[in-house]
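name: query_chain
kind: protein
chains: 1
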Amino acid sequence: MRRRGEVAGLPVVVVDSGRAVGRVKDVVFDLGQGRLSGFIVVSRGSRAFLPFEQVHSLGASAVIIGAEAVLVPSFPAPAGASPVGKSVLTREGQLLGTIDDVLFDPESGAVWGYQVTAGFISDFVEGKKAVVLTEEIVEGPDSVVVGDAGDVREPGDPDGSAVTMTATEPTAPEATGQGGPRE
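structure:
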């Protein structure tokens, strides 16, 4: 499981030459499809789009590509607004926090859910939480509505038996059979 925030800033490197062709400025998601579309890459003031399908490897320290030619110099604006900053509410109107990151599978690009912050002190004491994307989640222009507080849980915890995550490391997806990092 990776977070959008972990990928922003990584260098984009060509596998055969070792040449860095830019840095990831942002991650583009197609939230309607629940998938990672690609990355906005910046280099010397110019921007390009790197389609996720063209990524050779999404490592902890770099994004590896096959050739610089896979970068698309002009690209359409990302579809749909980012969920980051939206409030997370229960159907009963209880505020659970604010979305501060998107969790995705680096192998398939599938969006797993959203990381939720309830504020610095709460995050420090209780840990950050995650909203797992399900058919019952309603995502509106201003907020995300979940069935109840039980829909907010630790990444990789499909049954909700654990409800927190540390601010630095989500639970490994291999434990749930939801995929894992590229090798």
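note: Residues 87-173 form a domain with the SH3 type barrels. fold (CATH 2.30.30.240).
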